[in-house]
Amino acid sequence: MEKDKRALEIEEMQLKQAKKDLSEELQILEAGLFSRIYAVLVSGGVEADKLDKLPRDRWLELGLTDEDKQNQLEQLAEQYDELKHEFEKKLEAKRRKITQGDDLAPGVLKIVKVYLAVKRQIQPGDKMAGRHGNKGVISKINPIEDMPYDENGTPVDIVLNPLGVPSRMNIGQILETHLGMAAKGIGEKINAMLKQQQEVAKLREFIQKAYDLGTDVRQKVDLNTFTDDEVLRLAENLKKGMPIATPVFDGAKESEIKELLQLGGLPSSGQITLFDGRTGEQFERQVTVGYMYMLKLNHLVDDKMHARSTGSYSLVTQQPLGGKAQFGGQRFGEMEVWALEAYGAAYTLQEMLTVKSDDVNGRTKMYKNIVDGNHQMEPGMPESFNVLLKEIRSLGINIELEDE
Known about the structure:
- The protein is mainly alpha-helical.
- It is built from 12 helices and 5 strands.
- 45% of the residues lie in helices and 3% in strands.
- Helix 1 packs antiparallel against helix 3 (67-99), helix 4 (172-195) crosses helix 6 and helix 5 packs across helix 6 (228-238).
């Protein structure tokens, strides 16, 4: 079988990756084995200093006077050989799997697979989420001029429904918003100082003040040890926002967050005045505004859109299948039945439970009637009744239906 250059390149890349993965696995197992060999040798009277100077592969050549220890050593040596043999076997199996190619249908010389990446613009109904289980779907996309804006005229990117906070109690999203705003505020101040070409001493003092608010003693930063160039380089890195991390427990305290916000020239409440993008009027209350990491989830409304008229039915219950993949119907559950019962919509309910579901004769007759332009409905006995009979018979109770 002749392979082109690209196929050989892919093969080589896959082989390299397979070998790397297996080698890492072998290293981990070897490390455990050699630590046991080391312990046996040291307890058998070999000096640790001399052992450290000797390459690991030579350890197994050493002989011990203690017979038990020598037997243990020989067993470990056997395990080591087995380990290497297993590695070679696995590698050979991987190599065979990668290089053997695929069986093609008769007359097919080559299969070419093409993957197309399509950019899909976000739209109402698409799902997004933050990092705290705060997921939801987009209800509306506004033009940027209609979005609420702050006193500087900067519009917000996303407006989240506040009802998503108290019910789920995932207040990590609020912590992230506040810290994100503080980080951005500090970054903007540093950027302003760089633009005004202020003295490095002032920059150093401001950045030091920000870092001093950090609570981890081990990570205290002393900017006096930095040269002027290093401080400027640090300021360049921080001008888009200062990286901040806080642990889940014993993390940033409320007072520390307030100090960070004040250092960034922001109100310590974390809330600012916003204006309606359409009317220009100020909102009654101040709004929590900040920076949060949001991502788009692979649950797009385009992939969920689905409709069914007639389609496939389950073999046992004769009811329509469920789900888009099976071209299924929408389940009309117990609670929906109760709603129709409460409303008194008797004919709709009858239709839902018979001809639209598992009344086999009724639904074929209904289909014929619709084609003939006759919208009459004759409900029969649903298949679920037969299933119920079978269930009762399986309990040893015989029930037979009699025709009148």
